[in-house]
Amino acid sequence: MDYHYIGTLANMLPGTDWLPVGDIAQRYVDVATSDWANKVNAAIDTKAQGDLSSLYTTGQSQMQVMLQRKAADMGVPSRDVLLDQLTDSAKVHYYTSITQAHNAAFGKG
Fold it and tell me: How would you classify residue 107: left for phi > 0, otherwise alpha for psi between -120 and 50, otherwise beta?
């Protein structure tokens, strides 16, 4: 939708002092454009939130695999207490980082 072309045409509509047709038409263009933009933004936000959720799940599992592989390369047993603590700590830090990024992206927080 090209707001400026439509708005210019709307403003050029003839009217009188007591009935500014062009001005009224421009207000309708403003309302319609605002409504359209809000719907488009909501659709984009919904998709982005879904994508972010999917990426979070994928990223967290990839991080777990990286930690397990690095531990195996270093000879650490897979059932090591310190490795479990490191894995739990990594989950918390990953979740915190993703939450902060989400809040920054969507203006929450």
Answer: left
